[in-house]
Amino acid sequence: PDVIAQIEIAKQAALIRAFQADYIENNKVNDDTLRREYDMLKVQMGDKEYKARHILVEKESEARDIIANLKRGGDFARIAAEKSLDEGSKTNGGELNWSPPAAYVRPFAEALTRLQKGRLSDEPVQTNFGWHVIELLDTRTMDVPAFDEVKENMRQRVLQREFAAFVQDLRAKAKVE
Fold first, then answer.
1. The CA-based dihedral angle spanning residues 128, 130, 133, 134, taken in that order and rounded to the nearest 10 degrees
2. Measured on CA atoms in the order 36, 37, 40, 45, is the torsion positive or negative?
3. What sign has the CA pseudo-torsion 95, 97, 98, 99?
4. Phi and psi, residue 2, nearest 5°
5. Are 93 and 51 in contact (CB under 8 A)?
6. CB of 115 closer than 8 Å to CB of 137
7. Can you tell me whether residue 75 is helix, strand or coil?
8. pLDDT at residue number 112
9. Are 1 and 8 in contact (CB under 8 A)?
10. Model's pTM, two decimal places?
């Protein structure tokens, strides 16, 4: 019975791959569509990248205490290492990679873009992750790759999105008995 079930799953997977390959073959994405997608992404990403660091905590009161401590001369990196819930950045003193605002959740991105270089957020910033204390270290002009460099990646991205919408539409129209 286990082997028969595995054969059935393999058969279904082969059919799904064939269905997807057929869709891709019969639904080409033209360069005009890709150019519009590229232009839209450029607008969404903006023209600047930000280098920041943050400390993520669970409670607003804790974030306020951290801000007060930092304004009194506290060491950002040490506090981040001790208190931040962000496992990815706490070992780097809370430092985040160079990123455009679109890479962050909206409240964080909005607070980041309002900060001046070298400044700390005066108020904690709440996101679905918790409460952030943010410091903007630097900004730079973002180098956006040329259209021709990203065209094929964009083609795959558009095809995946369109195929997912197509499958969702099929599911919505299906009658299950």
1. -30
2. negative
3. negative
4. -65, -40
5. no
6. no
7. coil
8. 95
9. no
10. 0.67
